[in-house]
Amino acid sequence: MSKGLGLSTNYWAKCCAILENMEMVVIRDWKQVWVETDSKVMLAFVSNKVPWQLRKRWELCKRKLDLCLISHTWKEANFAADIAAKHGTSLIMGTMEVYVGRPPWLYKLKNPDYVYFRFC
Length: 120
Description:
Layout: E1 2-3, H1 10-27, E2 32-37, H2 41-46, H3 52-63, E3 67-72, H4 79-88, E4 96-97
Helix pairs in contact: 1-3
């Protein structure tokens, strides 16, 4: 999913991205979800410190899920999210694009058998 948010902060955009995707999960009646993000925004969702404007929507989503895992990944390894964010900046405010499967503009996917970063 990509959506044009207009002028907003990076923090707000990431909170909206997580929440709106969670709402799509609920609409599709999926009961288990694993959210992987490269952002510290995950701490807001894990500790229930979501911005007040989004809190009620988040609580409704949580009630409808049997399992919700939220984990962190390194930004350098999160290609899909980075490309989706760049695509979203080109959308008009309020425009939303939802895809089933790989979006046509997502040209790079993670390969689980490849090491993308190393610590020395």
